[in-house]
Amino acid sequence: MLGRIFLGLIFLGVGFVCVWKTDIPYNLIGYINFAERWFGGSRVFYKALGLFLIFMGALLIANLQQRFLEATLGNLLY
C-alpha cells in the first residue's frame, strides 16, 4: 500500500515538473521527431505526457487504476 502511494507521488511529481517547467525534460531528452510532426512540438508533447502522468499518479494513489481500465476498456481486457 505504501509502495503504491509512493509510486503515485513520484508520478505526480514528475508529471507536475513536465507541465510546469517544460524546458527541464526538453533539455534532458531533446526534441522528438514524432512529436514535432504530430503534436505541434516537443514541448507540447512533454506537457501532454505530464498530464498523463499526473492522471495516472492520482489513479495509483486512490487505487482506482483497475476500475478505470474496466470502465474505459471493459470487454477488451476480458
Task: Please provide a written account of the structure.
By secondary structure, the protein is mainly alpha-helical. The protein has one domain (2-76). 78% of the residues lie in helices and 0% in strands. It is built from five helices and no strands. It has helices at residues 2-20, 23-29, 33-38, 42-62, 65-72. α1 (2-20) packs antiparallel against α4 (42-62). The longest helix has 21 residues, at 42-62. It is flat. The mean pLDDT is 91.
Helices and strands, with pairings:
Blueprint lengths: L1 H19 L2 H7 L3 H6 L3 H21 L2 H8 L6
Helix pairs in contact: 1-4
What is the H/E string? HHHHH
Total individual domains: 1
How many beta-strand runs?
A: 0
User: Helical residue percent?
Assistant: over 70%
Shape: flat
Query: How would you characterize the largest beta sheet?
Result: none
Name some characteristics of this structure.
single chain, 78 residues, mainly alpha, 5 helices, 0% strand
Give me a quick take on this structure.
By secondary structure, this protein is mostly helical. It has helices at 2-20, 23-29, 33-38, 42-62, 65-72.
